[in-house]
Amino acid sequence: MTQYKKAFFLFAFAGFLFTSCGIKTQDKTETAISSEGNRTKYNFNPDWKFIKENPENAQDLNFDDASWSTISCPHTFNDIDTFDDLSLGHHDGEKNQWRGTVWYRKHFKLEKEDAAKKTYIEFESVRQIADVYVNGNYVGQNQTGFIPFGFDITPYLKFGSEENVIAVKVNNDRNSDNFRDNDPLVWNHEHWHPTHGGIYRNVFLHTMNPVHITLPLYDNLKTVGTYIFAENITAENADVTINAEVQNEHKIAKQITFEAQIIDREGKVVAVSSATKKIEAGEKHTFTTSSSVQNPNRWYTRNPYMYKVLTILKDVNKVLDSYETPLGIRSFDFNVDSGFHNNGEYAKLHGWGQKPTNAWAGLGAALPDWLRDYTYQLMDEAGGNFIRWGHSAGSPAEIAMGDKYGFVTLMPGVSGESQDDGETWRIRIAAFRDMIVYYRNHPSIFIWEGGNWAETAAHYKEILEVINTYDPNGKRLMGNRRADVKNDSEGYVSIEIGTEGWEREYPDLPIVESEYMRDEAPRRIWDKFSPDDNFWSHKNLDKNTYTIGSEEFAVRQADQWWNKMGKKPYHSGGANWIFSDGTHGGRNPTEVTRASGEVDAVRLPKEAFFALKAMWRPEAQIHVIGHWNYKEGTKKDMYVISNTAKVKLYVNGKLLGTDAEPENGYVYKFKNVEWKSGEIKVEGFIDDILVVSQTKKTVGVPVSIKSTSITGSKGWLADGSDIALIDFEVVDKEGNRCPLDAARVDFTISGPAIWRGGYNSGKPNTTNNLYLDTEVGINRVAIRSLLKAGNVTITASRKGLTSASITLTSLPFALKNGLTTQLPQVYIDGFVAEEPMPIYTPIMPPYEVGIKNRSELFTKFSYTGNGKAMLRTNMHWGKKAHTDLEYNYTVIPRYLNEAEYVRTPNSDNRYWARDQLQFIAGVDMDIYILHDDTVKRPEFLLEKYKDTGDNIDVGGVTMSIFNRVAKAGESIIMAGNSDGDAPKDCRMYTVMAKKR
Fold first, then answer.
1. Of 828, 782, 826, which is closest to residue 395 (Cα–Cα)?
2. What is the pTM of this model?
3. pLDDT band, very low/low/confident/very high, at 15 (cuts 50, 70, 90)
4. What percentage of residues in the chain have a pLDDT greater than 90?
5. Exposed / middle / buried, residue 500 (Cβ in 10 Å: 0-12, 13-18, 19+)
6. What residues does the DUF4982 domain cover (predicted)?
7. Is residue 339 a contact partner of residue 348, using CB atoms and an 8 Å limit?
8. Residue in 158, 203, 288, 207 with CA at minimum distance from that of residue 37
9. Given 122, 515, 552, 900, which residue is catalytic?
10. Please, is 766 exposed, middle or buried when counting C-beta atoms within 10 Å of its C-beta (0-12, 13-18, 19+)?
């Protein structure tokens, strides 16, 4: 477990623009002086009125909302209709969610003194379309769904005893069930993100002096805030440039002194710079100063040291305004030959993709910040140091967590999976600009993702223009996932954001993987030797793309990591897809989630979590996959994951085997281990020295229920939206969790709280109920606070077991006139302690780059299925048809002789993705697809190809031959074998091509 130290940690967010003025610089080592100025940041989350309807005139100041519900943000109106339906399969997301128009209204008062200030409202984002009104006045709209935005509401406000009302009309609808037909908001579809609507992230109100440092909210405000960057970074020195956009909204000019303090983690000022400028009435001016930080503490993924920059505005000696900006001093290199280096130190990147909705069963996408921090803490515990936000931007809290935990971040704006035009592109490129302005000061962001699909040359030029305008000194790379589908990408992307990582397609570019390991397995299933929990016997099992338990899922982690990127010295690393189970495109209709996470939808770890921890943590790690509660006579292969060089396995003290030759770098396999009641123990050795061990015991019969609670760092707050988690587990008489327990537990709750419950992964309609099954002996529920503080008691019971009661106290939350300065809390205060270098790295076999999948015809070839596809030349009879079957082509038409061809994996015969196989035609060519007609012909085949009327027999299966002509440079994209259900024993299509 990562260790934490208590320390001050508070960072704002920032922005940019250039100009110069007189500069003086001095180094300091004194304690920082807090300088609040006249700026106040209010937490605007608590105490809103809400209605899930679209009444007329709801924006009016005097509209009667007394009958509406009282809620607090973050809030979604889809928390009760998600994680409650079995997946549809075929990579379709959960569709059965309420969509439409709703209203929020918030009543508040401002002090008379605030009438002399400027007031801005900031939404960290609203899904999907937000129309904002202040006291009946329309102030604007935002429809990005993921990017922060704000408004100047000063002209519309009342002060003193008069009440103000902010009304927000929110819509989360989309055009059709077909994700391709959802213009302009192509990313607002459950295929990419669950359509959880609402004010699902934080809201803040800012009041400040008319002379102030602007907010980094470009949309509507056209302001960029601060922009801070470090250059000439060495162990001895770093030059830091501070830009701050200042606006004078007084009616007279002001002589302003600007001061910037760089403050270290201990609160010491390490450098100060200042400048003075007369700013005319109504003028915007950007101060630019520089400082040198001597012997800087640099930001590493394993030691993410953070400074802050306090920028202050003074009129003579009176402080008018101050603003904090995060600063991490780091250099980096994504090297085409040797991978990623951070401040000159090699680091393999390993982590996850994560959806920015970050959905949680029972809560939807509306999470308090401490739960986002909790998720990051789990990723850090498992050894992660890399995150790719899936298609759209993560939240401000999560990007700050990337800084805090040391996660190299791949950051997009908003995107579906297409090259867009017209209104969609206009919204996307504006969102990309707004995202960069808001987040550019965060050291954890190393790569800007231009989109989730290749763009035209014109669009790439716009993307680069935005980066060069708003982040000209960030030195960050830019790439698009699937840039290899267009030749236009050449010359614009500076890093290959690969897909499934088998081979690089840009030999001159570094590579980082954005999505790998898409397999799915629920946490509740161990293996076929353990009791079934509604999986192996499920009526939908034959419709599943994946029919594996959590143990096999854990073992596969090492296979995909090691072979796709881990063993390749040139490969920077990649993102496992995805960290937490969600409702976005599951391929298993036995589940209510896409069960591809290392934790489930309430963040309870699977065996895969511990497997990756045993691979990725720098300290010595070992984990035996599975439990030790079997029936007499059970013999099974036991797998151990360890980052050591040798492993020994014992049963009841008897040594059963020693393995010093792991598979896939980390996997130690012990065959036919016979179960004996007692314990199984594994030991890990480096240089024949015992460095780590683990023991699992046979657990007794269930006796009682045990409950524990989890809250944020400041406890459970009565702010109307805070969450407390309660874990309930069934234990034996010694308090050990019973790993095979899977049965109903009933709950009662009393006190000021709302029951949010949890879910069962393989049953529909289990959310929000006052009962829930344990899964492998444990499950987790949530309760939400009200605005009233008090004691809440939850009792968990099951007939035959001793019940468990737990009492939580929600703490009073200061709220006056609808406002509070108590900001959202995190899970753990402080910073992450420095980690050691990896204790051991498996021996990497010699690896020759790029000698496989290369072809004159199939250029920029990639395959995104689970198995591995191979390019081959000189087709004739006797050639192997698939990479994982021994069947050969026998009698073939003469026109296919000497063709180049693709061996696809037959294991992907029921796997669907819209971009499963892709290449660019290197020459004018004929393409032939051999398709098993027991499978429904996929859309791409019907649209682009003609049936030749010829057939080939491959291993007793008749494959129809389809043909099309492709011109040199044309992008060819093939989806999965079928858009619908395919027979269990069907054959995957194969592809051939001949130069014309």
1. 826
2. 0.93
3. very low
4. 85
5. buried
6. 633-688
7. yes
8. 207
9. 515
10. buried
Residues 198/126, Cβ–Cβ less than 8 Å: yes
Strand partners, 605: 599
Angle at 146 between CA 144 and CA 149, to 5 degrees: 70
Question: Cα separation of 300 and 330, whole Å?
Answer: 7
% of the chain residues with pLDDT over 70: 95
109, 163 in Cβ contact below 8 A?
A: yes
Q: What is the pLDDT of residue 852?
A: 57
The DSSP code for 593 is S
Radius of gyration of the chain (CA): 29
Whether 515 sits among the annotated catalytic residues: the reply is yes
Distance CA 429, CA 645 (A): 49
CB neighbour burial string for 580-590, b if at least 16 within 10 angstroms, e if fewer: bbbbbbbbbbb
How far apart are the two ends of the chain, measured CA to CA in Å? 60
Higher pLDDT: 438 or 7? It is 438
The secondary structure element, H or E, covering residue 462 is helix 457-470
CA–CA gap between residue 615 and residue 209 (Å, rounded): 52
Look up residue 148 and give its two tokens.
């922060």
| Paired tokens of 496 | 């290959």
Fold classified for 704-810? Immunoglobulin-like (2.60.40)
Among candidate residues 534, 525, 527, 521, the one with its CA nearest the CA of residue 588: 521
**CA–CA–CA angle 782, 784, 787 (5° rounding):** 165
817-866 residue pLDDT tens: 999 999 999 999 999 999 999 999 998 877 665 445 578 899 988 888 88
Q: Token pair for residue 351?
A: 């982590």
The 900-903 sheet, strands edge to edge:
870-872, 900-903, 990-995, 925-932, 957-966, 946-954
Q: Which CATH number fits domain 35-209: 2.70.70.10, 2.60.120.260, 3.10.580.10, 1.25.40.10?
A: 2.60.120.260
Residues ≥6 apart with Cβ < 8 Å to 598: 352, 382, 576, 579, 580, 605, 606, 608, 609, 612
**Lookup: tokens for 792:** 């809440």
CA angle 908, 914, 915 (to 5 degrees): 80
Q: In 10 A of CB 236, how many CB atoms?
A: 8
Joined together, the tokens standing for residue 768 give 């929000």
Q: What's the CA gap between 758 and 771, in Å, rounded?
A: 9
Give the tokens for residue 185.
């908001």
Residue type, 61: L
The residue ranges of every structural domain in the chain are 35-209, 704-810, 858-995
Q: Distance between CA 32 and CA 886 in Å, rounded?
A: 71
What are the Cα distances from residue 819, in Å, to 390, 509, 713?
A: 34, 51, 22
Q: Using one digit for the tens of pLDDT, what is the confidence trace for 247-270?
A: 999 999 999 999 999 999 999 999
**Position 882: which residue type?**
H
- Amino acid letter for position 895: Y
Q: And the tokens for 822?
A: 């108590």
State the DSSP code for 443.
T
Ramachandran area for residue 731 (φ above 0: left; ψ -120 to 50: alpha; else beta): beta
